[in-house]
């Protein structure tokens, strides 16, 4: 991980509207974005990642739903969305039968929980995502909400690190 202190400084110095827009690209929950912004100035990368963890831990279920709304269905990255396509690179070139299984399992999950199956897909294959989906399907809503919270935190960490590394 390359350290780009100037990227962190630029982020911390951004005006409120610009910072909010940048943070909403990381996570689509306005409550999360406001909480992370309120934690500035961040002394370093770790402080920003800690702000992510604190903000994520404090989100209500409605805020988690806002955060999930910004994520593509597993197996169907948003066309033209580089972030979605990069994060779901593990499904590229997968055979149609496996994609069909993934879509069917997604549909069952969404019918049960009322939201997309959310997992930190970075570095995962379609097989491992399908296995995780099947493993989590029996969960109750409260258990699943806490798992989703953890997955969102991991995704946000990756996106924050990428933002700082590209700065």
From TrEMBL:
Q: Which UniProt keywords apply?
A: Decarboxylase, Lyase, Purine metabolism
Q: Does the keyword Phosphoprotein apply?
A: no
Question: Would you say which domain of life the source belongs to?
Answer: Bacteria
Q: Where is the Oxo-4-hydroxy-4-carboxy-5-ureidoimidazoline decarboxylase domain?
A: 13-161
On whether RNA-binding is a keyword of this UniProt record, the answer is no
Task: Provide the catalytic activity annotation.
Answer: 5-hydroxy-2-oxo-4-ureido-2,5-dihydro-1H-imidazole-5-carboxylate + H(+) = (S)-allantoin + CO2
Gene3D superfamilies noted in UniProt: Oxo-4-hydroxy-4-carboxy-5-ureidoimidazoline decarboxylase (1.10.3330.10)
InterPro entries (alphabetical) = OHCU_decarboxylase (IPR018020), OHCU_decarboxylase-2 (IPR017595), OHCU_decarboxylase_sf (IPR036778)
Please state the Enzyme Commission number of this protein: 4.1.1.97
The top EC class is: lyase
Q: State which pathway it belongs to.
A: Purine metabolism; urate degradation; (S)-allantoin from urate: step 3/3
Among the GO molecular function terms of this UniProt record, one is: 2-oxo-4-hydroxy-4-carboxy-5-ureidoimidazoline decarboxylase activity
Q: What is the official name of this protein in its record?
A: 2-oxo-4-hydroxy-4-carboxy-5-ureidoimidazoline decarboxylase
What is the scientific name of the source organism?
Kitasatospora aburaviensis
Lineage start: Bacteria, Bacillati, Actinomycetota, Actinomycetes, Kitasatosporales
Q: Coding gene?
A: uraD
């Amino acid at each position: 991980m390359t350290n780009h202190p100037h990227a962190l400084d630029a982020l911390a110095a951004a005006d409120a509207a610009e910072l909010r827009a940048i943070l909403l690209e990381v996570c689509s929950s306005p409550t999360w974005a406001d909480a992370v912004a309120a934690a500035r100035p961040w002394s370093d990368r770790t402080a920003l990642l800690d702000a992510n963890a604190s903000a994520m831990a404090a989100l209500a279920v409605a805020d988690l739903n806002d955060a999930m709304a910004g994520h593509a269905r597993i197996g169907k990255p948003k066309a033209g969305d580089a972030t979605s396509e990069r994060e779901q690179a593990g499904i590229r070139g997968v055979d149609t039968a496996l994609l069909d299984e993934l879509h069917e399992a997604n549909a069952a999950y969404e019918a049960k929980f009322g939201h997309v199956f959310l997992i930190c897909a970075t570095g995962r294959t379609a097989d491992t995502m399908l296995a995780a989906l099947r493993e989590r399907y029996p969960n109750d809503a409260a258990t699943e909400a806490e798992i989703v919270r953890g997955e969102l935190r991991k995704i946000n960490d990756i996106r924050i690190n990428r933002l700082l590394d590209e700065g």
